[in-house]
Structure formats: C-alpha cells, structure tokens
Amino acid sequence: xxxxxxxxxxxxxxxxxxxxxxxxxHETIIKYCMSxxxxxxxxxxxxxxxxxxxxxxxxxxxxxxxxxVFLLIRLRSISIGTRVDLVIDQETNDDKKSTYKASxxxxxxxxxxxxxxxxxxxxxxxGLTITMHYTNEWFNPSIKSYIRSISVADKKMFANQLTGExxxxxxxxxxxxxxxxxxxxxxxxxxxxxxxxFVKLPDKEYDINMGHDEYTHMLRVLYSESLNNxxxxxxxxxxxxxxxxxxxxxxxxxxxxxxYQMFVKETNEREKANKxxxxxxxxxxxxxxxx
Length: 291
What we know:
By secondary structure, the chain is of the alpha+beta class. 48% of the residues lie in helices and 17% in strands. It is elongated.
C-alpha cells in the first residue's frame, strides 16, 4: 500500500485520501505557472486531484472552487512544504521589496474559520426552497453556479441535474424579494472568502486575503519555482547520484530536498575531512632547517 494523505473535502464534511504530489506533477505545474494559460493550469490541477484521489467517485469539477483550492493547499503543504515566501514591493519605494513567509497551516485554519455551510432561501410565493453554496466555476461565475439544489414540496432537484435553461425558468418564477435574497446570499458567500487570510503582514495595517479573482495567482505563488532550479536539481540526482530520472520523478519535492540537503552535508563534511588530512600531511612533510 502506497503512502497517502488525508485531506478534508469541506462541503462534504468528510476526509478523503490522496496520493502525494510528486516531482513529475511539480514539473508540469511549474511549466503552466510560467505561462499565462490560467485555464490550462486549472484543468491540470483538477486532473491531478482526480488522479491522486483514491476514491474515484469524488467529482472534483463539481466541488466548490474554494474546496479545490483547500485540497491543493493541503497537498502542497505535505508534499512540498508548509512555508511559502512571498515578495512584495514596498509602497514607498519601488526598488525595495519585503519578503513574508506564509504558513499554509495557518491558511487552512483561516479557511476553516470563515467557511460557510449551504444557505437556504425560501420563497413563500412559489413554495420553492433554493440551496446556495460556493460556486464551482473558476472564471466569471454566474449566480446560477451558486445554486446547489431547488426543492418544492417533497421533491428535490440538484442543480447539476438541471440545464441552465431549466434553472433560468425556475428563477423567473421567484418573487422580487427572493431574487434579491439570491444576490445577497451570493455576496455573503464571496465576502466569507475575502475574510480568509492568505498571508499575514505584521508590519502593515492589512493582510493579503483570498478572493475569487486571485485563485490562479495564488496557485502560482504556492507551486511556482524556477524551472532552471528544478532541472539542476534533477541533474544532480541523475548525473552525480546515479539515480534513474523515472525514480526521482516519483519522489515528492519535500523528500527530494531532504535527500539533496543530506548529499550537500556529506559533501561538505568530506571536503572538510580531506582538507584537514591534506593539512596534516603537508605539516608531516616539512623538514626542519639547520642553521
């Protein structure tokens, strides 16, 4: 049995098991992060989550986007590391930058703190009950994407089983009061995301919070790395440590860094020992002079 990671799907209220992110995944993510292809980046992340989840019944695309982001943060924190360095330009000096460390453990706590459960809207004039939750659309979400189900009497219809046209017809029947409540609830859900802290800035009067328009930028911050640095690291393992590239690609980035640091430590200790030995041999060859 392979090692797996436990990660909660917040909207389901239960844990699922995922295999860790490997160097093979990380290399592809880095390449997407270097491009401006936000759609490609999201599609790859979703495909990666599907392939890593041990439960094939979990429909990643239907999960709220904030749930998907939470899973990616969770996998990143365990497979790569719990800290992320964020460089920010100073407001008073364009040439000066400050580096802040984001704790992904704290980010997950903040998401859990402000995460809202589904909200029901009851329309007395039609007898309809509409259940709303976070959108599952990454880009320009419509208000329909916040609807999870529509109930009337004892009949419950899930939004993913209805066409957009069918939902539009149902929404057209709503009273003005219920329609306004729909918009208000959408805004309430988005505001809860805006309260989730991504990076704390102790020396400023504000923090960097999450937001729907910032999701793809956040993914780049979480997973981005210099492709040159990645290739150089793979070169060390293949050419110097004589490992097969296919085997290195199966390692997690965190394990790779640990092995690399051990290699650097052993190399430094060996060089130090060789210098000390060389120094002793040099002193032993010194011949005293006679005056």
